[in-house]
Design a protein that fits this description.
Number of strands: 2
Radius of gyration: 23 Å
Order of helices and strands: HHHHHHHHHHHHHHHHEEHHHHH
């Protein structure tokens, strides 16, 4: 028999566009470092050197990558999209860690954990003494979350529908062409959504200032509220301010950040109707009202709080967890075992698709409930023909399959990470809630170590690296990263 011709191995992905995009991202991160450098030069600490040094290093590397990829056409194919979304977040997190390591003199592990938590808008922190920390480093943490929220939102608009992750393409714009090219239509949508995101941040900062925050705190908390990130300028988080007005402003803009930004885009053209018609938004609002009402009733009966105080605290903390922001106004784990269980399960809810929030998200829960109802009806009427719809659109079988795969991946990842954390010596509550809060990008866990009143500083380094990886998996919708571990992906 003749010997089949030898086929030389070739790398299955064209790296030039990927290198070029990473160069752009690094240049953006490096340029952003100049903002805290200016704040550091102006502040009493004069701590501008770590940021200027970091900016020079990161921008220098970015220029080398841009030179390597010069002349590349930015045509992103699905195979490249998987790799680029993962590498961009890893590279940006490592770049963001450089000034933290130089400024705070913390270990590289802690710096990467803090940066990854910021970029993924998780909000878990290993830094303590925030109240007395330099304004420059506090601003940098907030900028990381601002950049991460914007980056994920644009990825949800332009890339996740392209690769079909868990039904995200249901929420693509009807006016855009979702081919494998970065078309002008998509770029225009991204620019508009970016302006909406910035506008919400400005409004949020102004509202915080009117409610009683100082200008610096208002700007920082606005960035971490609209991005649903949760970094604060105080170890006590929002509990530092003790103002109901501030908490209600936070509620309003956390909800705004967890609504679909494509709905805002359509609202600019059609008014408020797209918001009211969106089935996902209605379910999200109804769920929040129901949970807040029940929890307020139970807290009022089990404590000596007034109804308004209970409503304020419950609403703020429930919205914070559901939107995956992670602010805390008080240690809600002290309210009783029911509330501990409630907040644990709320971690897995998330906001709306196409928003800055993480976790499973409302539309997947809606599809799951609709599919469950359909299966029950099929048992009663085996020969019946039933159709699952969302927002008036029929759901294809591959969308339901993607949903099942995604939810299974979330559950399996939480279990594996929790077991690994337990093997490192963490107690059950810390291990399980730590795994859940990392994968869902919420921020605080449960218990005395990583709960709302604690932080992640005392965890072993191995646990921090594991949780940082879990944050990345959760932020990138799991399947986007997991596909890179498939041998089929690497076959040309």
């Amino acid at each position: 028999m003749p010997t089949p011709p030898h086929r030389p191995w070739t790398f299955p992905v064209n790296l030039a566009p990927i290198v070029y995009v990473i160069g752009i991202v690094l240049l953006t991160v490096g340029d952003l470092m100049l903002i805290p450098a200016l704040v550091g030069a102006w502040s009493a600490e004069h701590d501008w050197r770590p940021f200027l040094t970091s900016s020079a290093l990161v921008c220098g590397l970015a220029l080398l990558l841009l030179a390597f990829g010069r002349g590349t056409q930015l045509t992103i194919h699905p195979r490249q999209a998987f790799l680029i979304t993962t590498l961009v977040w890893i590279v940006a997190s490592c770049a963001g860690a450089v000034p933290i390591a130089l400024h705070e003199h913390v270990s590289w592990t802690d710096a990467v954990f803090e940066s990854m938590s910021g970029i993924t808008t998780t909000g878990s922190t290993v830094l303590t003494g925030l109240d007395g920390m330099s304004p420059a480093i506090l601003l940098w943490r907030s900028l990381l979350q601002w950049l991460g929220g914007l980056g994920f939102m644009l990825m949800a608009i332009a890339i996740l529908p392209l690769v079909g992750v868990g039904g995200m393409r249901l929420f693509r714009s009807e006016s855009s062409d979702w081919s494998d090219k970065a078309l002008p239509h998509t770029r225009d949508i991204a620019k508009t959504v970016g302006l909406i995101y910035t506008g919400l941040g400005v409004l949020c900062a102004f509202a915080y200032w009117l409610a009683g925050m100082g200008p610096f705190d208002a700007v920082n908390h606005a960035m971490t509220t609209v991005s649903t990130g949760g970094y604060s300028t105080s170890d006590a988080s929002m509990g530092k301010f003790g103002s109901p007005a501030i908490l209600w402003v936070g509620c309003m803009f956390m909800i705004a950040g967890s609504l679909p930004f494509m709905v805002y885009f359509h609202m600019l053209r059609q008014g408020v109707r797209p918001l009211l018609r969106d089935e996902q938004v209605r379910a999200y609002a109804a769920g929040l009202v129901a949970v807040v009402a029940l929890a307020t009733l139970l807290l009022t009966r089990s404590s000596d709080r007034t109804t308004f105080d209970a409503l304020t605290q419950v609403a703020f903390n429930v919205v914070s967890v559901v939107s995956t922001t992670g602010f805390a106004s008080t240690d809600y784990t002290q309210w009783g075992s029911f509330f501990v269980a409630l907040f644990f399960f709320l971690m897995f809810t998330g906001g709306c698709s196409g928003s800055t929030s993480g976790s499973i998200k409302v539309f997947r829960l809606q599809i799951g409930l609709k599919f469950l109802s359909l299966q029950v009806r099929r048992l009663v009427h085996p020969r019946g023909v039933f159709v699952v719809k969302l927002n008036g659109r029929r759901l294809d079988d591959d969308i339901v399959a993607g949903l099942v795969a995604f939810v299974f991946a979330v559950g399996a990842t939480v279990i594996v990470v929790a077991l690994a954390l337990a093997a490192l010596g963490l107690d059950l509550v810390t291990a399980l809630s730590g795994a859940a809060t990392a994968v869902t990008n919420v921020g605080p866990g449960l218990g005395p170590v990583i709960g709302p009143a604690g932080n992640f500083a005392t965890l072993p380094d191995a646990a921090k690296w594991l949780l940082a990886a879990a944050m990345l998996l959760g932020r990138l919708e799991l399947l986007t990263v997991l596909v890179l571990f498939s041998r089929f992906y690497w076959r040309a």
